[in-house]
Write a structure and sequence with these properties.
Low-confidence stretches: none
Largest sheet: 9 strands, mixed
Bound molecules: N-(5'-phosphopyridoxyl)-D-alanine
Number of domains: 2
Radius of gyration: 19 Å
Strand content: 25-35%
CATH topology of the largest domain: D-amino Acid Aminotransferase, Chain A, domain 2
Structural class: alpha+beta
CATH class of the largest domain: Alpha Beta
Order of helices and strands: EEHEHHEEEHEEEEHEEEEH
Helix content: 25-40%
Distance between the termini: 24 Å
Number of strands: 14
CATH architecture of the largest domain: Alpha-Beta Barrel
């Protein structure tokens, strides 16, 4: 797990160096992806690369390579790290230049990728969460490394003994500090609609499609914060943890605190999709 990729070279993570003038360091002027590779094989690579391209375009960084180039580099990184259950963290910054807020001319983006262990998932994990005001900026659809608000929100959840903060803007749920959210009431499954207020999670999209194939339609619809306490199920989705269930929210039990049948269906549908893609590869 110690080999990383930096600007065209594979090297030991401990030997990788970037300039202190890199705009990723100075301004958080960078975008990123976290791409899961359970068993050393990517799941959802194409979807992650499409989103990377969208983030790069949104912040006006010229794409350092096309999808085939990314795929070759990232697969090589997996091979050099000998597989296992990992996620690849990939970051592209605007590059190195004298500090000035406006874009410098003619700089080369910095490209960095490393592997990190994927947390082991056995069945449905149950976690606690709190609600907090969503005080982030207005372009949460861009997967930017400028994550100070997310960091503070997630840390507040952890400080209060919880796993995640569910974020609320104008009385409505947006997403978690590092996850998307699904809410179930009496068999009706909803997740907040895409837009600038939240990240178009790859896992979110995979689960919506996988559940539809299993005969369960997810509504992409607003969820009022007042509805959360009466939910039968609340789940969080992300590339690093697939799907975890919120058993308590703001110290109140969600559902019976133990059984989350639609979440179990969603997790099974996601596993089936992973299997289908592995067999087709
Ligand atoms: N975070 N929303 C936010 C704010 C996130 O940071 C993430 C993931 C998601 C879920 O997206 P996806 O299913 O594509 O992973 C939603 C990653 C894992 C992270 O920052 O480590």
């Amino acid at each position: 797990m110690s080999i990383c990729y930096l600007n065209g070279k594979f090297l030991e993570l401990s030997e990788a160096r970037v300039s202190v003038l890199d705009r990723g360091f100075i301004f958080g002027d960078a975008v990123y992806e976290v791409i899961p590779a359970p068993g050393g094989r990517f799941f959802g690579l194409d979807e992650h690369l499409v989103r990377l391209e969208r983030s790069l375009a949104a912040v006006q960084i010229a794409a350092p390579m096309a999808a085939e180039g990314w795929s070759a580099v990232l697969n090589e990184l997996l091979v050099r790290n000998a597989g296992g259950d990992v996620a690849v963290y990939l970051q592209v910054t605007r590059g190195v230049a004298e500090r000035d807020h406006a874009f410098p001319r003619d700089i080369t983006p910095t490209v960095f990728a490393m592997c990190k262990p994927l947390p082991a998932q056995q069945g449905l994990a149950r976690v606690s969460a709190i609600t907090l005001p969503d005080n982030r900026w207005g372009r949460c659809d861009i997967k930017s490394t400028s994550l100070l608000a997310n960091v503070l929100l997630r840390n507040e959840a952890v400080r209060r003994g919880c796993y995640e903060a569910l974020l609320v803007r104008d009385g409505r749920l947006t997403e978690g500090a590092a996850s998307n959210v699904f809410v179930v009431h009496g068999g009706r499954v909803r997740t907040p609609p895409l837009g600038p207020a939240l990240l178009a999670g790859v896992t979110r999209g995979l689960i919506i499609d996988a559940l539809a194939r299993a005969g369960c339609e997810v509504e992409e619809a607003d969820i009022e914060v007042a509805e959360l306490a009466g939910a039968d199920e609340i789940w969080l989705t992300s590339s690093s943890r697939d799907l975890v269930c919120v058993a308590t929210l703001d110290q109140r039990r969600i559902g019976d605190g133990e059984h989350y049948p639609i979440a179990a269906t969603a997790l099974a549908a996601l596993a089936a999709e992973r299997q289908r893609r592995e067999s087709a590869a």
